[in-house]
Structure formats: C-alpha cells, structure tokens
Amino acid sequence: MSNNSCAVILAGGQGKRMKSELPKPMFEVLGEPMLEWVMTACERSDINDLCVVTGYNAEVIENYVDGRCKTVYQPQRMGTGHAVMMAVDWLKERPQSNVFIVCGDSPFIDSETITAALEQHIRQDNAVTIITAKVDDPKGYGRILRGQNGVIGIVEEKDSTDEQKKINEIGSGAYWFKSERLIEALNEIKPNNSQGEYYLTDSVYILINHGFRADAYIAPNSDVVLGANDRKGLLMLNNVARNAVIDKLLADGVEFTCTDGVTIGRNVTVGAGTKILQGTIIRGDTVIGENCVIGPNCLIEDCIIGSGVTLNSVQAYKSQIDDNAKIGPFVHIRPDSHIMAKVKIGDFVEVKNSTVGERTSISHLTYVGDSDVGSNVNFGCGVVTVNYDGEKKHRISIDDNAFIGCNTNLISPVKVGKSAYTAAGTTVTKDVPDGALAIERGELHFKDGFGDKRLKLRNSRK
Asked: Exactly one of 82, 332, 364, 445 is catalytic; which is it?
C-alpha cells in the first residue's frame, strides 16, 4: 500500500426521499452511520489522511467526525465534480499523493477492494482507476465504456444511449486518482449535461483526452456499488449487511434456529457452538464466547461475555459477564457491571455499575446499584440497594456468603459482613458485622374485628 495516499469522502447529500433532516451519509446500517462504514474502510486500508466534504446540515457530520479528519463545506449541491472542487486547496497540499474519492453513503466499499484497486492504479501508472462491478441489473448506474487500452469513459444512465444501457459493468462512485491529474481535470469540468451539474465522471474523459491512462478495477464483491436513496433502499442495505454477518457466523460455527428479528453488528465476535435465538440484537464491539445461548429477545451492546453463558430476554450494556452465568428473563445489566462466573440472576432484576461475585444468586425483583457483592451471596425477592441520597451516589459492600432477606433495603453507604444475614423486611442503615443477623421491624399490633366490620360495610353497598 502506498504511504502517500489520502481520501476525499463526499458526504454533502441531503437524501430528500429519506424525508429527514439527517444528512444521507448519517443514516445507519447495522447501527452505524454509512459514513462510518466508509471511513473505517479507508482507515483499514491505511488511509488516515481524510477529508470529508459536507453540505446539507453540515454541523451533524462535523460533530460526528469531531476532529478525526478535515472537513470542507459545499454550499450548493452541484454534482460530484463540484463536491471534489471544494477540496482542491486540501489536495494542492498533497501534490504527489494518490487520492481515493468515494461517496459517504457507500457502506459496502471494503478495505480489500480499496487496496487492490490502488495496487492496480500504481502498477499500471494510471491517472485514474475507477472501481467498478459487474451486476445483473445495472439500471440507475453509470456505465463503464471500455476500449482496447483500458477505459475510455463513463456515461450516466440518464445520458446514455440504448446500446450503452446494455453494459453491465457499472461505476461504484469510487476512484483512485493521481492528485495532480485530478486537480488539472477539475479545472476543465463543465456542467454540460441534462442536470446542469459538474460530473466527476467527466474527469475521466478529460484525462484521456490529455493522453493520460484510465482503467477500471472490477471489484469481486458487487455490493460495493450499493447505496440508498430512500427508506426502502436503506432497508435493503441493512438486510444485505445483516445477512452477510449471519452467513459469516454460520461459517464460524454459530447456530441460528431462526433469524427473525436477529441483527448483529459487523464488529461483533461470537464463539463456535453459541446459539443465537429470535429477536436478538448484538451491537458494538461485543465479544461472546463459545457454547452460549443468547436470546430470545436480547439486546447486547459493547459487552464481553464468557463461554457457557445463558441470556434470556436480557438487555446488557458495556459490561462483562463471565463463564456459565445464567441471566433472565427480563434483566437489565447497565454499564460498568461485572457479573462473575456461575452467577444466577432471575426475572425483573437490574444491576448497575456493580460487581457480582461468583455463584451469587439474585433471584427476582431486585435492584443492585453501585455495589460490590462477594461470592455465594443470596438475594431474596424485592431487595433494593438504596444508592442515592438525592445529591450523591454511594457504594454498598456485601461480603462473601451473606444472605439478604426479602424486601431488605440497604441504605448506602453500608457494608454487610461475611456470612451475615438480614431478616426479611429490614432496612439496614448501619454496617452488619460478620456472621450477624440484622433485624429491623416495628411492633406488630392487631385490631380485633376490623376485617369483619369492613366486610359488612362492603356488603351493605351492593
């Protein structure tokens, strides 16, 4: 790979048919903006010198890239050539570079294609190398015109003849240029077309007419040409990406009995023998071990999950779950939690910013927040760690082998010692010594005949 390469990403489109205020490159495929897919592909190709051309609602993209690359503004959307013109000053600072031009809403351009196209570009000493693909249905795309010594031009479909429309090699909207040649060509592009726009494709004709060589790299992955102009097209992109991830995981030994509602991000890693059930969404940089059961109806984001884990109707975020833990149904694991090996968590439990030690059981209807829980601890039903005093949050510590009775309130900051117990219904406001039983209950009173009087009153009203 050439170490003097750079990239210009065209991200100024509005996408009117999306019917949204969001710039088109910011619409998501598998939970990531299409722009992120493109930027990541460039970076994985060792292109770290990036310039993003913004336009419609530019501040959204500027805030997203947040110093990660240079941005330039296109005040009017007047075609792809005009968009690249906005980056000319930036390109002039890189006169000896090979520059990659790509649309920001082309999520399936990949590093392998970018690298192979550059290698051909350098090997053939091309002024421009177009990344193309051959497809069964080329409708809507620019056609590649070839001659004996390479490419002789690109024609947009709306400007093509009937014979040219039969060509099935189409442009992806991505190119490698020699930077100096590109700058020269941009100076000569004119809006002489049915749309009155400056087409970047015209630069190919211009360079050929000046005696420079143009050719095309045919990508083995025809998906590189795919984009979306409306919500239906965006759904198509998501389905293509979703199925590609599932196909890869199947090849890696992951089991799917049904893929209904299953969406898995492209950066997710899943071990062999793991079964993923219906309605499961896995996002971010999640890593899942072997022989797990994930689902049904789980949402996992940026988590590290060990092997042999069972998650049933669990939402988990930015947390770690160790081997052989069994969690669910209807459990919420909030960020910065660590669930250790062989922990059991039952229905309607929330854990937040807490460590739960090995073999601890939290059966149901319990909140554990800002807590450090030891091993072999048992939580009864309805336990609450009261971690917030209205101004600050405080931590709670529960040592190994403790038993927390049903409906216990632990008022932080407080510590429950090793092998200590709390009686059902107790509110704990002081540290419980090791091995002690904490009991806090008011005196029980009876009012004789109260129930009989109430029943008689209710019956009299019927």
From this structure: 364
